[in-house]
Amino acid sequence: MAKKPEPSSRIADNKKAAYNYFFEEKFEAGMVLQGWEVKALREGKVQLTDGYVVIKDGELYVIGCQINPLKTASTHVNPDAVRTKKLLMHKDEIRRLIGKVEQKGYTLVPLNLHWKAGKVKCEIALAKGKAEHDKRDTIKDREGKREVERAMKSRHR
Q1: What's the pTM value of the predicted model, to 2 decimals?
Q2: Which residue intervals make up region (Disordered) (predicted)?
């Protein structure tokens, strides 16, 4: 029997997060998924940009992470694309996060979904929101880097 190739490690990224937040710390959490969701993730049918993490009853949940069902989903399953998904972390890590999130201005943001040893993991970050002028600085830095890359590329021709 031929061994199945490992799917690419990265499933989805939240590119808006780096624009809207400063990251203080990053954590990796497991994700509780249904079978149809795992199949959809393998096909890349996920959107993470509107997602955020909440703490309810001492547990972490991702809200707004959209996993679109495949057209071949079973008829006995009722797929919900925006279902709230539970994150799995150690109790002591969750307690530490609760203490940090209660501080003013901190929130938990999902950064990406990736495969690790055949399991889906969600990288979350303890983040602080950027002010409007910080966002403008981010745009200015990105455009400056782009111009430098263009100049270097045209110079090497």
Answers
A1: 0.73
A2: 131-157
